Amino acid sequence: MHNCRLVIFLYLFLLVFFVPSVLSIGISPADAYLNFIPNYEYVLDYSIDSYRPFTFYVEGPFSEYTRIEEVTHTDTQGLFKVHLLLPEDYPTPGKQRMFVAAKETPSGGGIGAVAIIRGFVEIEVPFPGYYAELDLNAYDVNEGEPVTLSAVVRNRGKENITDAVLELKIYSDMRVIKTFKSEVFPLETDSDYTFSKTVPGEELKPGEYDVEAVLIYAGNTRRKEAVFKVGTFDVSIVNYTERMYNNTINPFEIEVASKWNNRIDTVYMDLAIKDGSKVLSTVKTPPFDLSPWQTKKSSFYWNTAGIPIGEYGLEIVVHYNQLTKTENRKIYIIENVPVKEAPAVSLSTMVLIIIAILLVIFNIYFIIYRRKEKKEGG
Length: 378
Prior knowledge:
There is one protein chain. The two termini are about 20 Å apart. Strand 12 and strand 13 form a beta hairpin. This protein is about 15% helix and about 55% strand. The strands form six sheets. Strands 10, 12, 13, 14, 16 and 17 form a six-stranded mixed beta sheet that branches. The chain has helices spanning about 1-15, 20-25, 345-375, and strands at about 25-30, 30-35, 40-50, 55-60, 65-75, 75-85, 95-105, 115-125, 130-140, 140, 145-155, 160-170, 175-180, 185, 190-200, 205-215, 220-230, 235-240, 245, 250-260, 265-275, 280-285, 290, 295-305, 310-320, 325-335. It is flat, with a radius of gyration of 34 Å.
């Protein structure tokens, strides 16, 4: 027990006095992005705040092509440079991430956490031959607002592209409703091309649309898909509790979704169980707000005392931003079948269980005690 308390004390001591100092140390820049240029030398300047004696090093791809130059340091800051001399070629194409790190030199004779901080350098190595990457951006809007589509092509290959073409297609219910096609364009290695088009707001009704970008270049085809929505100022009912027990306080949930691309404030609902035109029970939900396109559940309890078993109408009046909409659904009041209680455990059975537990505890204690005696005797 004494040793356990000592371990806990040491852990808390390290947590309080050493971890905050480790977390306060930062390296700048935390990341860097470079293009691979054969035989080119990059010189990257780094700084460390809250400086203490550090050992600087790099690890990962291209680390063998680097050297580190420590410039200067004070009690509050350290400056160093990373020289990266790229080779003539590199066998692995794509994004290669090298880490630049600094490890605190531990002081002798003390117990403490050792700070290790890292930043990364990402190097884009071109692919052999023709290789293009394609990105597609489409943004949600509200009805009446224009929709902007943007496709970006990046030549990540070693060869220049001379005859690329882009096509954008908008789909509604799996039908193409709009097509845009670019002119033929060239694209040198390590360069980008952006193709943007705007659809007037009056041409698209509220709803969800698919958009596809198709890039054709040097006998290759690349595709990218995205989705955008055109919002309408509405709150729809997604789901609700359809069955409740009679003469019971029931948990009830109703789920709604915003169809708007902006925030909707002060949403709440008035619900009524109706037998024809007769109102049997009502409840009001707590108010809440909805973020753009958000789906949210409202949970509460509903007392069905005095409502006979049967099928009824459920009137839901949704209030949002001083507007209202009414929907009529069905709800079912079903029989509340009592749950059978588990058979009670007899007193004699309970006594036997307690005796068995005590025997297990005694045996564990006896084994631990005997082991301790053997250790002390040995």
